[in-house]
Amino acid sequence: MKSRFQRTLLQFAVTCLAASAGSFAHAQDKVKVGLMLPFTGTYAALGTAIENGFRLYVDEQGGKLAGREIEFFKVDDESDPAKAPENANRLVKRDAVDVLVGTVHSGVAMGMAKVAKDSDTLLIVPNAGADAITGPLCAPNIFRSSFSNWQPAYAMGVVAADRQKHKTAVTVTWKYAAGDESVRGFKEGFESKGGKVLRELNVPFPNVEFQALLTEIASLKPDAVYVFFAGGGAVKFVRDYAAAGLKNTIPLYGPGFLTDGTLEAQGEAANGLLTTLHYADGLDNAKDKAFRAAYSAKHTIQPDVYAVQGYDAAQLLAAGLQAANGDIKNRDAVVKGMASAQIMSPRGEFSMSKAHNPVQDFYLREVKNGQNQLVNVAIENLEDPARGCRM
Ligand code: PHB
């Protein structure tokens, strides 16, 4: 017969053992990250840069975020919106990921946001600018480490009118959410400062047959042309624009996607182009210098804006995990940690808006010597208006 004291002691020992076994199991649980990115097609290089950036941050933390090992699951989304629900569900249902990270293409990202909402999965968007994601589709579990399509476009509209003194412009884009929203943002900035958009031209995504458009631009003779293209399409457009002899007569502008990660392939044709973006070459901050050194040591090329956004997606997840003491299932704490994070980004420090979109500086850059060199800060701390977000 054990005494009451002995029984209490035994119970205490059993409780301690169970608790330490529990926290041991908890510490051993990996956080499952589902990377849904384009690894083929016109945006393939962008997807790879995002993955490289994300992994670089995790590697710098010894493969763990807030003490939790990270396990990756990957899907090539092919920048195909029709396949987005199936691809996202494969990660959520089959692989049971804790967090979805993706993607580049706005149409695909909107499909991911729907899956994230329906399944209540944490989602971090490391590029796609679809305004709706931090607008009507905004939700506590949805974050973006990049930009809204409105942001760099609006900044360029203001620069084109105010600094460059242009009165008229023609816009050209791929016909899908990102292009349409980019044109709308440019128009808002440009026309608020007295400019006028004469014509909005477009081609289907990811078409790169630009000759008919270039002929039309030449006959419209605007003061300026604003375009949204990225990746392989941006390389082709910039080369075709110069080859058509337009570059020296009608200045070409765009959000920085036009010249980020593309300059080597664009060569001479890109020289002198002015673009606006939340990243630039030659930023004077220690974080960027360290990031560039680490990235180029691993990948033999310099990082671009996509690599930065991937790196910061990992930083954002780390902030959430730290706030939850590593417990990814503690959603409230994770969300609070992410929403209030001050991210020390290579782009400069930024915070999250109420709609979970970065509030950040937009730089004016000029292509010189194969780089997007910083000219000045076009608009400081620019916050997306988050139209339609109720949160
Ligand atoms: C988008 O679809 O939102 C998108 C794609 C490529 C970019 C920027 C935005 O470089």
Can you offer a commentary on this structure?
The protein starts with a helix and ends in a 9-residue tail after the last strand. Mean pLDDT is 94; it is low at 12-25. It is globular and about 65 Å long. Helix 2 (44-60) packs across helix 11 and helix 3 runs parallel beside helix 4 (106-119). The chain is α/β, with parallel strands linked by helices and 391 residues long. The chain contains twelve helices and 15 strands. Strands 7, 8, 9, 10, 11, 12, 13, 14 and 15 form a nine-stranded mixed β-sheet that branches. The protein binds P-hydroxybenzoic acid. P-hydroxybenzoic acid is lined by residues 104-106, 127-130, 149, 178, 230, 257.
Quickly describe the structure:
The protein is an alpha/beta fold and 391 residues long. The chain contains twelve helices and 15 strands.
